[in-house]
């Protein structure tokens, strides 16, 4: 009898530890994950790829192309990366000539700079007006654009735009009265 009890105890222990009847986690289908991503980030799905335990989904949105990673068990978005910036032609000024999209080589690979036109468009979103001048400063990944804008109410702003990310780093407002006085002294 003790042998039977030991065998039953052994089987019970194996059953508790192994749990063959327990269900394995249910993974979401590609369609379910994409649907969940599009609820949070509407756009057009360009591609979907299953990579290890996550779906890599490229979504084209109004402001650019994004790569989103979502886990397969809950569909939760684990990372978002912007791959391209889209600048509508309607907001680009006609007075600025197109510039090349420069590339910086670093020890981590090459990094694409935003174009001068993109820097202007981003600046005009922050400070509406007329672009007077644009220049790029810096020679490495810490480079930035300075965009000088005259507003409709007569003020002048200089917008500093990060050359890699396109983030507005600062907006500096010039006092036109001091420029007018300097100009009159030169005459």
Rounded mean pLDDT score: 75
Q: What is the overall number of helices?
A: 4
Quick one: how many beta strands? 10
Summarize the biggest pleated sheet: 4 strands, antiparallel
Strand content: 35-45%
The rounded distance between the terminal residues' Cα atoms is 117 Å
Shape: elongated
Query: Order of strands side by side in the largest beta sheet?
Result: 1-2-3-4
Using only C-alpha atoms, the radius of gyration works out to 28 Å
The portion of residues assigned to helices is: 25-40%
Order of helices and strands: HHEEEEEEHEEEEH
The parts where pLDDT drops under 50 for at least 5 residues are: 90-110, 178-187
Structural class: alpha+beta
Provide a short characterization of the protein structure.
By secondary structure, this protein is an alpha+beta fold.
What would you say this structure looks like, in words?
The protein has helices spanning 2-18, 30-40, 116-126, 176-186; strands spanning 44-51, 54-61, 64-71, 77-85, 103-106, 109-112, 130-137, 144-150, 156-162, 168-174. With 187 residues, the chain is of the alpha+beta class. Among the domains are: 30-82; 116-174.
